[in-house]
Amino acid sequence: MTSETTVTQGWDKLSSTLTRLARPEILPEGSPVNMPMTRGSTVLFPTLKDMQKQGQKRFDHEYIYGAMGTPVQHELEKAIAVIEGGTDCQVVSSGLAACTTPLLAFLNAGEHCLLPDSVYSPTRRFAENVLKRFSVEISYYPPSASAEELGSLMQPNTRVLFAESPGSHTFEVQDIPMLARIAHAHDARLMLDNTWGFGIFAPFAHGVDISIQALTKYPSGHSDVIAGAVTVANTEDWHLLRDTAIQLGQLAGPDDCWLTLRGLHTMGVRLSHQARSALQIAQWLKNRPEVARILHPAFPDCPGHEIWKRDFTGAGSLFGFVLKNTFSQKAMEAMIDSLRMFGIGASWGGYESLVLPTSKSITRNFPSVETEGPAMRLQIGLEAPEDLIADLEQGLSVLKAQN
Ligand SMILES: *Cc1c(COP(=O)(O)O)cnc(C)c1O
């Protein structure tokens, strides 16, 4: 059985870094602990020459014009790059924009992008409805594909191999070092949606070229911000990404960036608690006769569990489970409606617990665990785990009564 330390150690270790990030210099006259807020579109310069000189520094996280980011956004970018282990980061308006911006930056008409079947559905819709219109070829691979299978799906024009680990709703943990070897052997970039693994999976140390974050989730942490980030690890990629982001008008408002920076300082301790509770609740569910399978990377039931043990230093607050197929979708929906401690709503990573049905809401080209029975996804917040378990226990009695 997975110990609590295995799911919390990465978060506990990260806290020392998180508390030091984005702290202003201490001046002789004294300084507040946190970054001051700067709002502004126009930035004024003493001379035209100064303005032109500053304009050339667009790759250096400088303050030039509000549409190219404010000082708070640039501090957030530096903080995210440190946590991800990359060199530079671009903050954008949402987690989805963090997926679409690099896809637009690193793909050209006539090229091919290979996506995992478990990719976040809005990313899939963007590929189908926008990238295809611009003559980018799109195809999918099973998230647990072997090296041989994947090699056979790569094409001479494949320039982006996309990954998301664990996969949306179905939680397949992907073999990122293997994917990196295949991408690089085919002269393609490996792009990873690392939202679940932020802080507990080091993308660049495992061969990723471009790492994506929905800052909406763990970093902001209070369900009141929408923002995203794209991190890279070399100058060529940074220039291409930054120019594309500017040309698309991609940025995040200073208030959202400030709230995300504030959230980052407590992310380690929040997620350590949430990861421990999530493990405890998943262990309780695993022993229930109504449950067929736990979709949590720390459980052997979860596809890619061994890879998670090898590559991650912790686990997150989000997991899924599949009910035995003797239960109807309708009975599961009655159970969800009966829960008092779990909010019904999109997103995750905040301080509060959430529930969503996942079966019947996802598109898959290949068979997946979701087809085995009604399934749902839990986001575990900061509530006491015993209270959440008591709520799930009454929910399961509703499930049985309604079946
Ligand atoms: C939520 C999420 C996104 C999108 O983030 P938004 O800020 O809601 O646009 C992207 N990828 C993953 C894996 C997510 O969970």
Automatic annotation (TrEMBL):
InterPro entries: Cys/Met-Metab_PyrdxlP-dep_enz, Cys_b_lyase_bac, PyrdxlP-dep_Trfase, PyrdxlP-dep_Trfase_major, PyrdxlP-dep_Trfase_small
UniProt xrefs under Gene3D superfamilies: Aspartate Aminotransferase, domain 1, Type I PLP-dependent aspartate aminotransferase-like (Major domain)
Catalytic reaction(s) noted: L,L-cystathionine + H2O = L-homocysteine + pyruvate + NH4(+)
Molecular function, one GO term: cysteine-S-conjugate beta-lyase activity
Annotated positions of the N6-(pyridoxal phosphate)lysine modification: K217
GO biological process: L-cysteine catabolic process to pyruvate; transsulfuration
SUPFAM superfamilies for the chain: PLP-dependent transferases
Similarity section: Belongs to the trans-sulfuration enzymes family.
Protein name: Cystathionine beta-lyase
Naturally occurring in which organism (per UniProt): Acetobacter persici
